[in-house]
Amino acid sequence: MPDKNSVPTDQHLQNAIYGTPKINPDEQRKYLGTFRERVGLTINVDQLQQADWTKAFEQELTKSQSEIIFFNGNIDQSQLKPYILAATNAGINFTIKTNPDYHVDGQNLAVVVAAKKKQFTLIRLMLLKKYGTPTSDGTTPPQKNLSGKKNI
């Protein structure tokens, strides 16, 4: 008959050998180490290379939910420099992640702005939906009505 104490000891040994199990590891890899429900804004690698999003990024940093920023450190630092400077100027903590799991192609994320706790908004909006495509002077057009309701 198994002893009641063998289960915790076995779990302790398993954790010592293989490490503590992570909750939603695929989600954490996608969002540079955080959970989706904490994310307020993402910029993927393609978006980072196609346009200058610093104005939209700075606007997002003024929101109270923007508490920490994760940068994909495998991307060329010259591409991340304006965003790192904006985060520094805003006084928001950031982390540069260089784990080989964070890739630098296409739809992989380059920048993640997140809260330290779960956000209570139900809809997660990606960069283009939230701010539109920046114009040549770096500004973004007025926000679209994203609620699905007609403007009166």
* Low-pLDDT windows of residues: 144-152
Mean pLDDT: 81
Strand content: 5-15%
Order of helices and strands: HHEHHEHEEH
The count of β-strands is: 4
Largest sheet at a glance?
A: 4 strands, mixed
User: What Rg, in angstroms, do the CA atoms define?
Assistant: 19 Å
Helix content: 25-40%
Task: Give the strand order of the largest sheet, numbering strands 1, 2, ... along the chain.
Answer: 1-4-2-3
Structural class: alpha+beta
**Coarse morphology:** elongated
* Straight-line N-to-C gap: 72 Å
**Contiguous helical run count:** 6
Question: What is the structure about, briefly put?
Answer:
The chain is of the alpha+beta class.
What would you say this structure looks like, in words?
This protein has 152 residues and is of the alpha+beta class. It has helices at residues 6-18, 25-30, 45-50, 54-61, 77-90, 127-131, and strands spanning 39-44, 68-72, 93-97, 109-114. Strands 1-4-2-3 form a 4-stranded mixed sheet. Helix 5 (77-90) links the parallel strand 2 and strand 3 (93-97). Residues 144-152 have low confidence and may be disordered.
Task: Write a concise keyword list for the protein shown above.
4-stranded mixed β-sheet, alpha+beta, 152 residues, 6 helices, elongated
Task: Summarize the helices and strands and which ones pair or pack.
Layout: H1 6-18, H2 25-30, E1 39-44, H3 45-50, H4 54-61, E2 68-72, H5 77-90, E3 93-97, E4 109-114, H6 127-131
Parallel strand pairs: 2-3
Antiparallel strand pairs: 1-4, 2-4
Helix pairs in contact: 4-5
